[in-house]
Amino acid sequence: MSRLLPLSSCVYSVSSRLLWRGSPSCSPLLTPSSSGLLCVWTAGKKDLIDLPALNEDELEEQFVRGSGPGGQATNKTSNCVVLKHIPSGIVVKCHQTRSVDTNRKRARDIMREKLDVLHKGEDSEILVKKKESELRKQEKRRKANHNLERKRLFKEAQAADSKPGNDAV
Amino acid sequence: MWRRCLSAGCRRFGLKGIWGSHAVRRCSAPALPAGRITALQAGDLWRSHFVENGVTEPDHSTHYIIAYLLGAKTIESLEQGKLTELLSREKTEQMWQLCTKRLSRMPVQYVIEEWDFRDLTLKMRSPVFIPRPETEELVELVLRDLEETGVGADEQRTCLEVGCGSGAISLSLLNSLPQLKAIAVDQSQAAVDLTRENASRLGLQDRLQVYHIDVMKDAETFLSLCSSVSALVSNPPYLFSEDMMTLDPEISRFEDHAALDGGKDGLRVIRQILTLAPQILSSPGRVYLEVDPRHPTLIRRWVEANVEEMHYVETQQDITGRPRFCILQKEKSNKDHKLDLD
């Protein structure tokens, strides 16, 4: 198995320390607490509005910190984000883009989807959408077949009626 | 399947050998394979080569180059199976060209000539400064304030950026706020050119003016650009001169030192920006700075003693928890107060 295959993990350089950054007061509750900090980060997907909002207090984010002052003094390209939802133990890893900020937002979108599935099961947004999409496809297929059948019958009727000399349709 | 090159002997000579003690070690690339190989195999080969030659981030470097080669941003976002497809001859040669550049410690961003900053992909070109991930947070801070003031959609606001580099900050702000206009300056012509190029590529050139100005040497011209901007943003050179000597070769060999060196205490350009800020900002306009973690306290003290019209609002941390951003606000002057009372 090649070492290059990323599997589901990010590679960190040996010299850097992993930093878990989380709120000092982590609520063990499963549902977002109304007294906690509710933060909705989206990467611009409008249909995620129905998903549960995330409570930042319940999340821990992993960053590769490195030694030294960071900022202009360093040019590290590791920007994979690992997000952990403490109450449920769900971990999301995101390295879809080369922007840490975007990866953080997308990780949160994915987390919201996963929490939705966790809470609502069959009724979760993802599964409902999948079902709707399937139904639409089935309907399309049915209509297409229906139209093909009608055309076929029409042509057969045509062939039966036509005589030499008639105007072609 | 491919021939192992002779360059493994490169390190045996050592620096003091043929080239003398100050020479840059020249490492040659492995030979191009005779037959076709997959991206995965090419990656493994080059990864080992990077490790052998002390190139930092061997995995990340290889991953980004392969992803770029195959039309994606990251290897994780590649279609399944693409990695195990045989590369064309052309792609193999391209892989070799790109990786050879990385072998010389050229930053990946310059190798593939692009990088992402928030939701934008920008062109990169040496020696123009490569945007750092921390700076994405700076843009968020400015947006938070500009969005909060809840001004009407038709109100024209302008922001000004000192030291725009590739244009990351200004273009990001313009992209997020359709009503915003921006002015960007840089002492480097290369930076000015690159910012203009990125602006065009993103279709934002109509709302951005870029000027080649050195705020240290030509304050007058700088002040004549605009007299009432809502926000002054900057990621100015803020490294301490002594820290310039311990930079990785990726930075010291390829990035503009003038974009990094902030003088003995790293505050040279920052002081100038804060001195000029009151004349450029509207009231209550804000200055947003990215700085070295040792700076916030120093800046607060210095401003209190030297710039009457600016008051220190707050320090914000970056994603690694280091104090990284300073926000200052232009005070209403006594003259303004009098006018209010009348």
TrEMBL record, chain A:
Residues 146-155 have a biased composition (Basic and acidic residues). One of its GO terms (cellular component) is mitochondrion. Residues 133-169 are annotated as: Disordered. It is found in: Mitochondrion. Its main location: mitochondrion. Keywords: Mitochondrion, Transit peptide. GO terms for molecular function: translation release factor activity. It holds the Pfam family RF-1. The keyword Signal does not apply. Residues 53-146 form the Prokaryotic-type class I peptide chain release factors domain. Belongs to the prokaryotic/mitochondrial release factor family. PANTHER family: MITOCHONDRIAL TRANSLATION RELEASE FACTOR IN RESCUE, PROBABLE PEPTIDE CHAIN RELEASE FACTOR C12ORF65. This is Mitochondrial translation release factor in rescue. It comes from Sparus aurata.
From TrEMBL, chain B:
One of its GO terms (molecular function) is peptide chain release factor N(5)-glutamine methyltransferase activity. Residues 46-112 form the Release factor glutamine methyltransferase N-terminal domain. Keywords: Methyltransferase, S-adenosyl-L-methionine, Transferase. It comes from Sparus aurata (Gilthead sea bream). Coiled coil: none annotated. It is an enzyme of class 2 (transferase). GO terms for biological process: methylation. Residues 142-238 form the Methyltransferase small domain. It holds the Pfam family MTS. It catalyses: L-glutaminyl-[peptide chain release factor] + S-adenosyl-L-methionine = N(5)-methyl-L-glutaminyl-[peptide chain release factor] + S-adenosyl-L-homocysteine + H(+). This is peptide chain release factor N(5)-glutamine methyltransferase. Its EC number is 2.1.1.297. GO terms for cellular component: mitochondrion. InterPro entries: DNA_methylase_N6_adenine_CS, HemK-like, N5-glutamine_MTase, PrmC_N, SAM-dependent_MTases_sf, Small_mtfrase_dom.
